[in-house]
Design brief:
The complex is a heterodimer of chains A (about 525) and B (about 500). Chain A is α/β, with parallel strands linked by helices and about 525 residues long. The longest helix of chain A has 22 residues. By secondary structure, chain B is α/β, with parallel strands linked by helices. Chain B is built from 23 helices and 10 strands. In chain B, the strands form 2 sheets. In chain B, strands 2-3-4-1-5 form a 5-stranded parallel β-sheet, sandwiched between helices. The chains are: A alpha/beta (about 525), B alpha/beta (about 500).
Chain lengths: ~525, ~500
């Protein structure tokens, strides 16, 4: 269809429609201006355009590996002088010099590393480079990542700017056809691939095509599996995440259902739902006291979503602030790349309250429903919080948290179900307990407490088993374990409210040992 | 290069000022925006009076060959050598060196450098010699005890090359555009549309005109908007909305058209009127009433002349954040007439310790005043005008207050019908008025959410191989869910208030 005709019209087979559009603008700009800059996200084809330009006009291309590779080793003390020498040398023999990944130079000189002896010298370099081109009547083209996504400013004053647009379904089709051949693409529904992951980079698409060929994947479903398991890169290693499914989460049926309805279904591109325009909820808040299963829900989601699950949690140390933002930004960018996807922000109330992260709440606000939201609108942001009142008021008041889900301590029957699920694969003895008595023993226990209870029961049983004197049913172990957990909870409650005294709990309810 | 050596009217005036400043002072700062011709004037001066021109490049040549050399020391040595050999020493783009000296650590080097510079200036004065330092603005955020820029500014005479004047535009169009096409360029209309082009931008425009052999108004305007202007907004990421799509916003669309869009659109019929947009427009209203959507429609309409300040600019706490804001405002000024849209201004302006974002934004807003003669419209959105800094409100910048409200029943029904529409007409069996009646008090965002929930419920049942329920059942369920979420929000807000 039309996309295939588009391929035939391309000046060179490897340029996709958006790329050839940008290329035409680039050619025009190079004719008109001394300096031109190309802005695009990684893997949108900056390098391809530069190579094509250099091939057509006979220029020199300077790439990242040369930035740190002096022409005469030992003579240049800085990145900027190294780059300058490369450009000077290239201008001696060429009328056009193109520099790829120019943002990495700015990063090296003006970026976070303040140890650099000439911090802030990027601007001087940019000035020298454009002076050089202007004085000799030559052309300079530089390419880097979008300034808005970048930490450092790398742009050239007075350069004309070319942006490579986001790839559409025609671009997917053109690239896959180019890589796999028109015949092989026939069995694959490119529209389906596009809907599943509309923000892939050129690299990712080419990798997908190559893996599809190597694995002989000829159907959409097979290609999608490769996409999910091999291409999309979550920042969580699924194998490190406890294997939980929603059905393992007893007492969370209403939450599982809401998440399935408002997040999971919309994120999966079901054939049946095509054209419905279904989108996931942008902001979901899971709130409830500690230990009521918020993080477990995250684990179950991570398992379900695979490559489309992105996590920001306490491991993102807010120190130093500069790298904190950088890392957060990277996760967000990756989530956008994998969109539609889930961004799970664990303990958001704690993270957003820390004084180190000013502006983080504002950033989330823009991300959840900012002006530029075509891609981020396909990311479901799930926040967990013990206390929603501790979230930035502006975030809540904005109404951008659309789905509020409360996790609670499990009800009676849910508590015994949790125990039943935990002991299902254990020796028979562990199943021999009185569920009604268990419910009264564990009144007020949350999901984490129940988990600890079963662990304690195992440990108590093990002691007796080693001594060759285990009880004939599990009731006695459950009673002991429940008392220990309860004592623990009481101590915690006292300490939390500042009423802890030595011996306080022993006096009230002597621990069983 | 030789064509640049011919001075435009504005440059010629600045050149005269430069010559007399050189007669009167031993230090002259020659300032002007990038691409306004600083180097041209420096070269003209050196041609007329001899002396030497030093470039950033010359400094780097020295540093390159000496691994132990420090940039600031080398700069001083270089100036010292030059001033002992020449009566006039011009250092082009000196502000690039100053920027490097503005390292974020320690004051020691800055002090040493400043006193070295002072010695040099005294020596020049004693011997009747002159330094000319050029740079784009010599204005930096100084967060240290010694302010190098202030020191330089107060130690010598300042000459500023003005932005291109209408006469300059004519001069350069005549110089660069092929004669037959130059006649066709309507410079007056070009000025209405883009009065702040730099020299090199104008040169690129001339090249486009020459290359495509077109000089009509539409072509020139397209080239300016699509090729020369560099906005920070990625239009592809902005939902494609026009004002006509915004149901229930007729009064706001009308006001914006009257006071912002028309004055900025520079219709030929009004070019003599001297129509200016309102300097500041405040869009305020409860969350979800469509403030950001108005921004989207504006961004789509204004294209290269729309600049966005939102939560994304604060992702980095270090000084690069100041550069970002500065860059946005500088670009907006250069693109004037243009729009700066500050989304969630009440949240952004809430100055938190350390970053001083709010204060800085205020300074930038003040800076818009004179330079662009009111050709940059600032649009702020706020949930609560009470949270805007009093200084901003007092400044009188906000000239137009527009309230966004929850839509009435009629528009609610229209919204529901619009958001529930899909390619296959999946949802047909419902009365939009019924949904609109149920959703009393809902905002535009709530209506969008309502429709999305209906779709999600439908999808849930379809995927479970259940017969989908009547659309109105889904609508009722979704309305109940939204009420529930609102109640929870109210509870969280109430706890927050109690906690204070």
């Amino acid at each position: 269809m039309s996309a295939r005709n588009a391929v035939a019209r391309l000046p060179l087979p490897q340029l996709s429609p958006v790329q050839s559009q940008a290329y035409a603008l680039l050619r025009d700009a190079v004719d008109a201006s001394t300096c031109t800059q190309i802005e695009s996200a990684p893997g949108q084809g900056k390098t391809t355009l530069l190579r094509q330009l250099v091939r057509e006009l006979g220029g020199a291309l300077i790439e990242a590996r040369q930035f740190f590779n002096p022409i005469t080793p030992g003579t240049h003390v800085g990145v900027e002088t190294t780059v300058l020498c490369h450009v000077e040398k290239a201008f001696a023999t060429h009328d056009l010099v193109a520099i790829d990944d120019i943002n990495t130079i700015a990063e090296a000189t003006d970026g976070g590393s303040r140890g650099y002896s000439r911090y802030g010298s990027y601007k001087a370099l940019a000035q020298m480079l454009s002076d050089l081109a202007l004085a000799q009547g030559k052309r300079l083209v530089v390419a880097g990542t979008p300034v808005r996504d970048d930490i450092v400013h790398w742009e050239f004053d007075n350069a004309l700017t070319i942006r490579i647009g986001q790839m559409g379904v025609e671009d997917y089709e053109a690239l896959l056809t180019h890589e796999l051949g028109a015949k092989a693409v026939i069995g694959i529904d490119v529209g389906d691939i596009f809907e599943h992951a509309p923000a892939l980079s050129v690299y990712q698409l080419l990798q997908l095509a190559r893996l599809a060929r190597a694995n002989d994947a000829k159907t959409s479903a097979a290609v999608r599996t490769i996409l999910d398991t091999r291409i999309l890169r979550a920042n969580t290693r699924t194998e490190e995440v406890e294997d939980l499914s929603f059905s393992d989460l007893k007492g969370f049926e209403h939450i599982a259902e809401a998440l399935t309805t408002h997040v999971l279904n919309p994120l999966r591109s079901y054939e049946k739902l095509r054209g419905l325009g279904l989108r996931p909820k942008r902001g979901v808040l899971l709130f409830g006291p500690p230990g009521t299963g918020k993080t477990s829900i995250g684990r179950a989601l991570a398992r379900q979503m695979q490559g489309k699950f992105f996590l920001i949690d306490g491991a993102f140390s807010p120190e130093p602030a500069s790298t904190f933002y950088r890392r957060v930004q990277k996760v967000i960018n990756d989530a956008k790349r994998a969109a539609p996807s889930v961004l799970f922000i664990d303990d958001a109330d704690v993270l957003l309250q820390s004084g180190y992260a000013p502006g983080y709440g504002r950033m989330l606000l823009s991300m959840l429903d900012g002006l530029e939201s075509a891609t981020s609108g396909k990311i479901a942001v799930i926040l967990t919080a013990m206390n929603p009142s501790h979230l930035p008021p502006a975030l809540l008041r904005s109404g951008r948290v659309e789905l509020w889900l409360e996790t609670k301590a499990p009800a009676d029957n849910a508590r015994s179900e949790i125990v039943a699920a935990h002991v299902a694969n254990l020796p028979k003895l562990f199943q021999s307990y009185d569920p009604i008595h268990l419910n009264s023993l564990t009144e007020g226990f949350n999901a984490a407490d129940m988990r600890r209870l079963v662990a304690d029961v195992k440990a108590l049983y093990a002691i007796d088993a080693i001594a060759g004197a285990s009880a004939d049913n599990a009731d006695v172990y459950f009673a002991k374990a429940a008392a220990n957990v309860r004592r623990n909870k009481e101590l915690l409650a006292l300490a939390e409210t500042g009423r802890f005294k030595f011996g306080a709990v022993e006096a009230a309810s002597p621990a069983q040992s | 290069m030789s064509s640049l050596m011919k001075l435009s009217p504005g440059q010629a005036t600045a050149y005269t000022a430069l010559e007399s400043a050189c007669d009167a002072s031993h230090l002259v700062l020659l300032r002007g925006d990038p691409g306004c011709g600083r180097t041209t004037l420096a070269e003209a001066l050196s041609t007329a009076r001899g002396g030497v021109i030093l470039k950033v490049r010359d400094l780097y040549v020295r540093v390159e060959s000496n691994a132990d050399a420090l940039l600031d020391e080398q700069a001083l040595t270089m100036l010292d050598t030059a001033i002992s050999q020449h009566d006039l020493v011009i250092f082009d783009d000196f502000d690039d060196i100053v920027r490097t000296l503005h390292t974020p650590y320690g004051n020691e080097r800055a002090f040493a450098w400043a006193s070295g510079m002072k010695t040099l200036l005294d020596r020049a004065k004693a011997r009747g010699k002159t330094f000319v330092l050029t740079g784009s603005g010599f204005h930096y955020e100084h967060n240290r005890d010694i302010d190098i820029v202030g020191f330089l500014k107060t130690s010598g005479a300042n000459v500023t090359i003005p932005a291109l004047s209408p006469d300059d535009y004519r001069f350069f169009i005549k110089t660069w555009v092929a004669p037959d096409l130059a006649e066709q360029v309507d410079v007056g209309r070009l000025l209405d549309h883009a009065s702040k082009l730099g020299l090199l931008q104008l040169k690129a425009l001339a090249a486009f005109v020459n290359k495509h052999r077109r000089a009509d108004e539409a072509f020139v305007r397209d080239m300016v908007d699509q090729r020369l202007m560099k906005t920070n907004t990625n239009t592809g990421e902005v939902e494609n909305l026009s004002f006509a799509d915004l149901k229930g916003f007729e009064h706001i669309a009308e006001q914006l058209k009257t006071y912002v869009i028309n004055p900025l659109a520079d219709d030929a019929r009004f070019s003599k009127l001297g129509l200016h947009p309102k300097r500041g427009v405040l869009l305020y209203g409860p969350p979800g009433t469509g403030k950001t959507s108005v921004g989207r429609a504006l961004a789509r309409q204004m294209q290269g002349k729309f600049f966005l300040v939102d939560g994304a600019v604060v992702t980095d706490p270090s000084q690069s954040f100041y550069w970002t804001i500065k860059w946005i405002f500088e670009s907006a000024k250069r693109a004037a007439p243009s729009v700066v849209f500050i989304d969630d201004a009440d949240v952004l302006f809430q100055s938190d310790r350390g970053t001083g974002l709010g204060r800085y934004l205020l300074t930038m807003l003040d800076g818009l005043e004179s330079e662009t003669a009111g050709k940059v419209a600032v649009i702020l959105t706020a949930m609560n005008p009470n949270h805007l800094p009093p200084a901003l409100l007092r400044s009188g910048r906000v000239e137009l207050w527009l309230e966004t409200k929850a839509p009435a029943q009629g528009p609610r029904a229209e919204m529901l019908a619009k958001y529930l529409g899909d390619r296959h007409g999946t949802f047909a069996d419902y009365d939009p008025q019924h949904g609109a009646r149920l959703s009393e008090g809902f905002t535009a965002a709530d209506m969008r959410r309502l429709a999305m929930d209906v779709k999600a419920f439908y999808a849930r049942d379809i995927l479970a191989d259940k017969k989908p329920a009547a659309t109105e059942t889904y609508i009722e369920q979704a309305v109940a869910d939204i009420h529930h979420a609102r109640a929870l929000l109210a509870r969280a807000n109430a706890i927050e208030k109690l906690a204070i």
